[in-house]
Specification:
15% of the residues lie in helices and 37% in strands. The chain is mainly beta and 694 residues long. It folds into three domains: 270 residues, Rossmann fold, CATH 3.40.50.1820; 168 residues, no CATH class; 189 residues, Jelly Rolls. The strands form six sheets. Strands 2, 3, 4, 5, 6, 7, 10, 11, 12, 13, 18 and 23 form a twelve-stranded mixed sheet that branches. Strand 2 and strand 3 form a beta hairpin. The longest helix has 15 residues. The radius of gyration is 25 Å and the shape is globular. The relative contact order is 0.14.
């Protein structure tokens, strides 16, 4: 969450199958598409919806499935919408795709993510759907990323007609693992600032005059003028306060009363929520975690892809139609146990196998304690020894994206250079395989020479040839060592015991390989650097350890029901006028000590044959830093989005920058809007906000 149809954080809308799915046309019920319907809100606002219905639904009503997101049903998500929603309709559902208030062709202004207004509107939409003559009154909700978030949030409001949800690549905790912060560290690469820049451009897109009519320009100008840069609010809340608790259903899982199917991917930025939700929610629930990035599993990127739409139907048929599909008799959790591979920046497929657990936490998984001894991992802790490392500002440049979409350069490459810039602890060669499933943790006794510091921890699989495959990782702002709500500065030189949970993972370490833990006080450009260069001292031996969630092999895994091959409805007719282009380029100016990462994603110009609209979008992010100078960290984000058809041509251009000094973050946002190459709107917004122990 790329090319056509693109990505959440990049350009278009994560909505294509990256594999050759079978296109299904022989549906049991013929489908009628309603291009646009206005759903009235109680305050007079109208939300724009596209609806796919069985042709005879008014005579033979059906349950309904809602997807509710801000990404434009008429173009941006049109590809993926066409693959999924008619598929559901052909199997006896009304499938409804709604543009949220202030987005696409809907009325209003979108002021931020996940506000109470968004939930209120969603509840009204569900009530409206349930009351239609073509609906039985039973509604399900599905969504990926934003749509997965608000599915959980709306479920927590308990609208009576909402009977079940499927939430993909989402989170139950907006502070713990959304795009903004990780372990109290500010995410830079593919994170808070980059996504904020993308949303500024997305929110500036005009409504479609073919849908909205002659008032489209007035609506557009009002949006351009009144929509705030979301990123300003996000930077104003750097700790886990009420701003982030709102919409975090982990605050009280029992607010939800309907069945929930949580879907994740090991390459996705939101994967931790699946296991956490299964452990925290007591209602009917299931979890599925594949090798995927931020994409629907029928696209399987990286593969293997699965027949996810068929899996959805098994869920919907059970909960919305009362058909016993057997889905609730199967294990609570299915996960892809990944095999070791040579590190590469992109995988078509990750080798491995499906494993399952009947409950989570699973009694089959035991914690294995491994001591962090000087330079090594061992079963027995040696005498304590102090090891120090001065943070190198470019450590982290081989990290890959925070949230992979399966693009050509998303994944982390060989970690040997990163390992050389870190304190490392490496095991002897394994006599037998070790499989882990869950959340590895590293517990360390540390001291810092600065009052503000972070620590990055990586778990790697080292092959007999020496390559270092990144298995999982975690970040912790050490001022957040006792929690994210009340951070406290470190006392330089004082020892602290800290626990760093790593991202959840399933991985099989083969016999003959070695396990490595790597620790560093810098991780650019994932984490914004501490204000001053930091030397961390780690007291190895003693209580410093790795905690591995070791899973015993289970013969039952061999008997699991296989997933069906991917299927979709026919894709829309789209002509590629300019091919997509993407790149991730690292450069090093040796004389200046300057390290730079340039990320380019261009989806190419795409012409939708039905509407005649040509849609074009490109993203360019540049991250730079100088060795020994953490305050030199700088990000520049550029976005361009254009729409063109006969009689209508508009374009959005944005440029955003982020920098900091010792005490303050500095942000700028420049927005320009064009009609027929004439600039009709320009606005520059700036914010300087205090660094809150970040």
């Amino acid at each position: 969450m790329p090319r056509l149809p693109g990505t959440r954080h990049r350009a278009a809308g994560w909505d294509s199958c990256g594999v050759a799915a079978r296109v299904k046309t022989d549906f049991a019920r013929k489908v009628r598409e309603v291009e646009n319907t206005w759903i009235p809100m109680s305050d007079g606002c109208r939300l724009a919806a596209r609806i796919w219905l069985p042709e005879d639904a008014e005579d033979d009503p059906v349950p309904a499935i809602l997807e509710y997101i801000p990404y434009r049903k008429s173009d941006h998500t049109a590809w993926g919408d066409a693959l999924r929603h008619p598929y559901f309709a052909g199997h006896g559902y009304a499938s409804i795709r709604v543009d949220m208030r202030g987005s696409g062709d809907s009325d209003g202004i979108l002021l931020d993510e996940y506000l109470l207004q968004e939930q209120d509107d969603g509840i009204e939409v569900i009530r409206w759907i349930a009351s239609q003559p073509w609906c039985t009154g039973a509604v399900g909700q599905i969504g990926i990323s934003w749509g997965g978030f608000n599915g959980l949030q709306i479920a927590a409001r308990r609208p009576p007609a909402l009977k079940a949800i499927i939430s993909l690549m989402s989170t139950d905790d907006r502070y713990a693992d959304d795009v903004h912060y990780m372990g109290g560290c500010l995410l830079a690469d593919d994170g808070q600032f980059s996504w904020g820049s993308t949303m500024m451009a997305y929110n500036a897109r005009p409504p479609d005059p073919a849908i909205v009519g002659s008032g489209w320009r007035d609506t557009w100008l009002e949006r351009l003028d009144r929509t705030p840069p979301f990123v300003f609010a996000w930077f104003s809340h750097q700790r886990r306060d009420g701003f982030w608790k709102h919409g975090s259903v982990c605050e009280n899982y029992d607010d939800i009363a309907c069945p929930v199917y949580m879907i994740g991917g090991w390459a996705d930025g939101y994967r931790d929520a699946v296991l956490r939700f299964l452990a925290g929610y007591s209602g009917p629930r299931k979890g599925l975690i594949g090798p995927w990035g931020h994409t629907y599993p029928e696209g399987g990127d990286p593969g293997p892809a699965i027949g996810f739409l068929q899996e959805c139907l098994r869920w919907w048929d059970h909960w919305l139609k009362g058909v016993d599909t057997g889905i609730m008799n199967e294990p609570m959790l299915r996960a892809w146990m990944q095999d070791a591979v040579e590190p590469r920046p992109q995988y078509d497929e990750r080798p491995g196998r499906w494993v399952a657990e009947d409950s989570w936490p699973s009694p089959r998984i035991a914690t294995r304690l491994v001591a962090l001894n000087p330079g090594s991992l061992g079963d027995v802790a040696e005498e304590e020894s102090a090891l120090s490392v001065l943070g190198v500002q470019h450590a982290g440049r081989d990290a890959g994206d925070w949230c992979s979409f399966g693009r050509e350069a998303d994944e982390p490459v060989d970690q040997r250079i990163e390992d050389g810039l870190s304190l490392t602890f490496t095991s002897a060669r394994l006599d037998e395989p070790i499989e882990i499933l869950g959340v590895p943790k590293v517990v360390m006794t540390l001291a810092s020479d600065r009052p503000i510091a972070l620590v990055a921890v990586r778990l790697c699989d080292v092959s007999p040839q020496g390559s270092s495959l990144l298995v999982t990782r975690g970040l912790l702002n050490l001022t957040h060592r006792d929690g994210h709500e009340d951070p406290r500065a470190l006392e330089p030189g004082v020892r602290y015991s800290v626990e760093v949970p790593l991202h959840s993972i399933a991985h099989s370490f083969p016999a003959g390989h070695r396990i490595r833990v790597a620790v560093s006080p810098t991780y650019w450009p994932w984490a914004w650097p501490s204000p001053q260069p930091v030397t961390l001292t780690l007291f190895s031996g003693g209580e410093s350890r790795l905690e591995l969630p070791v899973r015993r092999p289970d013969p039952v895994d061999q008997t699991l029901r296989p997933f069906e091959p991917p299927e979709t409805a026919p894709p829309p007719r789209v002509t590629i006028l300019r091919p997509p282009r993407e790149g991730r380029v690292l450069s090093h100016d040796v004389a200046a000590g300057l390290y730079r990462l340039d990320v380019i994603v261009e989806d190419g110009a795409q012409a939708f044959e039905g509407s005649g609209t040509t849609y074009d979008i490109s993203v360019r992010d540049a991250y730079s830093i100088r060795d020994g100078r953490p305050l030199s960290a700088f990000v520049k984000a550029e976005r361009m989005i254009s729409f063109e058809r006969e009689g209508w041509r508009t374009r959005i251009e944005t440029v955003s920058t982020l920098s900091s000094d010792n005490d303050t973050f500095h942000l700028t946002n420049q927005l320009d809007a064009y009609e027929e190459d004439v600039r009709i709107f320009a606005k520059t917004s700036t914010l300087s906000v205090a660094r809150d122990l970040v």
